[in-house]
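Deliverable D5.2: sample structural annotation.
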Amino acid sequence: QKRVSLGDAQTAVAELGGTTPDRAELGDTYPNPFNPETTIRFNLPWEAPVKVEVFNDQGQLVTTLVNDLMGPGNFSVTWDGRDANGSEVASGVYLYKIESADLRLSKKVTFVK
């Protein structure tokens, strides 16, 4: 597992191995809905700065899970249903998004208490 620095926090990003993907993908979370945590998978065919962020239904940033130079490869990162301050978020629908060079993908995940 690769440790990605996020200020004082640390998020574990797992490299899943396998063949190098030929296109970027953002997978579905598992489980969804979730409590207490969910896993987000993504694939990158190139090396580039990558951000994986979670937003609430108002479009406000909840937390940044990844902000690092990554790829190419197949990866997963776990979100524990907490915001950037470490507080558990409210039940509801959240948007998780990956951004990189020429890449912006997003999907929804539901957190239930």
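Annotation notes: Residues 1-10 have pLDDT under 50 and may be disordered. Residues 75 and 101 are 17 Å apart (CA to CA).
The annotation will be released with the project's public dataset once the embargo ends.
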